[in-house]
Every structure is written in C-alpha cells, then in structure tokens.
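look at this fold:
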Amino acid sequence: MNQLSVISYQLSVISYPQRGPHLPRSPANVTPRNCVEFLGVIHLVCSVIIMFSQADFIQYAQWSGIATLVFAVLTALSFIFKWGLRFRLVGSTGFMLVLTAGLFTLSLAPLTRTVIPGAVRYHLVYDTGSTQTVIAISPQITPTQLEATLRQAANDLYSYGRLGKAGDNQLTIRARTVVHPEPGVSTPLYLGQVKRSLASREDSQMAIDIYQDKFAQLPKSNNTSS
C-alpha cells in the first residue's frame, strides 16, 4: 500500500470526520488524484510561507501571542461562570498556543538561504556551538573566492542559539585546507578567517582576514591569486 495514500487518507479523516459517503472507506480507495491534490496543497502552503521575512513572522508571533492570552483569559472565565462553550475555548486556546509556537519558530531562522556570489563549497569540520568554528576548503581556492566563501559561511553558520562568552560576543570562522608537503604527510593550512557579531544576523562590519602569505604554500599549479 502506498504510504502517501495512507497519509492522505489520515488527513481526510481529520478534515472530514464522518460527514458523508464522500469519505474514503480505506487508504486503498485513495486515488492518485487525491495524492496529487494533497501535494499541491503542501506546495502552495510552502510557497506562501517563504514569501514572508523573519521580521514578519516575529510580528505575527506577537499578535498570535496576544490572541492566545485573550483566549486563555476567556477560557478561565468560562470555567468560573460555567459557560457552555468552555471546552471549545480550551481547544481554541490550545490551537492558538501551537500557532504561536510555530510562528515563533519560523522567526528564528530565514526560510531562504542567502547565496554570496563567488563563494565555493566548504565543509564544517569543527564547531563549539558558541564562538569558534572551522571550515574546510579546497586547496584550489583563490583569495577572492575565499573572501566570498567566508562571507557565505558567516551567513550560514549564524544562529540565535549561539551564545557569546564573557568579553567575546563574536563568531570566529577559520578556513583551512590540507597540503601535502611530501608523500605520506598531510598538514593543515589556515588561509583566512572572519569574525562576525552574534548580536544580529545582519552584520555590515565583518572583519575578514586573508592570509596572503599562506597561499604561497599551496601547490604551485593551484596557487592563483586574484
């Protein structure tokens, strides 16, 4: 049995709880058209979500939080005065709580990745989870590409969850490659680093250092300066 059919069937049960003969009797009765429509709805929802920025989600989370508090107060009053809809208010409050948590989560990180022109692929090889990280890059990289790659890494590795240390509220990202000065010997070689603020995602004053003298130690065929 198709797993997607099972998921679509379960969603239809949640959305239409025993409201008539149109409800599929089993997952086997779910047609490919149902699955395509379900995927289309998911695609539409995702397309709408990525239209909003982090600032938008922060504002929506604040509004939703206020509405949640209002519903919570109404729920408390409904139990005090024995209103008939008190249990419906419990469900509404729970829904608003989940909605607020979802909006707040979406505000923590951008939904689209910023791409820095000229950046090349890198691998994260060390991360303390706070202020120190190391990325691995190719020995074929140029100084111009390294600068763009450091900017890309500074954008990718920033997180609200990173906590600065006393006197150090910056994220330091060091870029290294590996050279082989002789057969059977591998040596790490640091080519540059970037320091960015942990206080805000947008940092126009990143401190980027490119170690030009280290590029002289790269293989001659790959040592191409910009």
Helices lie at 3-15, 32-49, 54-80, 86-106, 143-156, 212-215. Confidence is low (pLDDT under 50) at residues 13-21. The first helix runs from residue 3 to 15. The beta strands are 123-127, 132-136, 170-182, 185-197, 207-210.
